[in-house]
Structures
1.
Amino acid sequence: MKPVHVALILAMVCGVAAWQVTAIPESLMQMTVGSALVPAAVVSALSALVLLFGLSALKGRQVDESQAPDQSSLPGSGARMLSLLAGGLAFMALVTPLGFIVPATLCGMGVARAFDAPVSLKSALICGSMAAIFWLVFARLLGVGLGPGLPWLI
């Protein structure tokens, strides 16, 4: 598929996303920041990137890999994909019995491993810290229902 065609498909996806943002209902509470602000900002940023990609493709600056000879995948790509999927599956399977923080830590470690980070105490501490901070900010400060951080925490 040519880069221009990819840009057109991405533009259509952005159009559908923008349409979906307009379908987000207004909050019943009077808030300064509405429920559609962040989705609208993300869709706008992605649409701008798609526009830049499309212009670059029209100028011939994007590589057309459809004409390239068949290349095998990078070494270890299967293991990377498996660690990424295993992290997501671990989160989905363990979030109910173990709370949010432990499964999110395992998920983060799976994602980090997919990007070639070693599975170590350091990556566990970094992912655990990020999961705990995320849970504290969203569950405690903002009141998003993420469930307990840990089973023994309320």
2.
Amino acid sequence: MDLIIPDFGLLFWTGLVFICLLFVLTKFIWKPILSAVNEREEKITEALELAVKTKAEMQTLQAENQNILKEARAERDSIVKEAKEIASKMVADAKDNAKKESEKVVVAARQTIEAEKSAAIAELKSQVATLSIEIAEKVVRGELDSSDKQKALAEKLVGDINLN
């Protein structure tokens, strides 16, 4: 039973060693340990505060990024819309210019055709007049073969000239 119930001397010396150890620990070791724990607690608190601030800044930056993306998309859409409008305007202008040029070509072709037609008609009239004169000359020669007919025609022409 001695093992279960210790002697008074053992309890006394154990208690005295414990109190001395407690005194030494309190005097020399307890303060540095508490200061180290307090410093660590402060560092952890600062780290948590920094993490909260960083998280808030990240949320702000994400919001700003979203706004910048929205603005960039809007600007991209406006640029694309403007480019489409410019392209359609250029196509319309090209069509108008092509239409005007084709009208000019048609007008020039009509004028050329009219000029050639007038020249052909004038040449045809000239040839018809030449042929008519040649035919009339041959007919008159045929009729004026005899000198009697020539004299009668000359007298008739002299009579016409005198009357005028």
3.
Amino acid sequence: MKLTALRPIIYTHHLEDTIRFYIDLLGFVLGGKNDEWGWASLYKDQVSIMLARPNEHEAFEKPVFTGSFYFNTDEVDELWELLKDKVKVCYSIENFKWQMREFGIYDNNGYLLQFGQDIATLK
């Protein structure tokens, strides 16, 4: 058996705003959308995510994900400069002892998004 991809589903009460956040700020592309289901699929390069309005089978008040979404990138400094004044910042860009240069922001729902680049690959 081989796993071929992981596509997280991000629950949101604000589907249109969340689509705009990921497209306008992070450069994702809308791959599919179903208004009846309250669902959308987005992608950028090798990353895919789905967005969905919560359904009646699960209680959902607000984001309660206890982790973060960590994105590897090849231009972390460029991305930081693009985003830092347009989003709520969790922590500013810095080099960490685990040899990653990274920063963290919150999306429009409050989910933590982290972006990092291996220090060895910095130009």
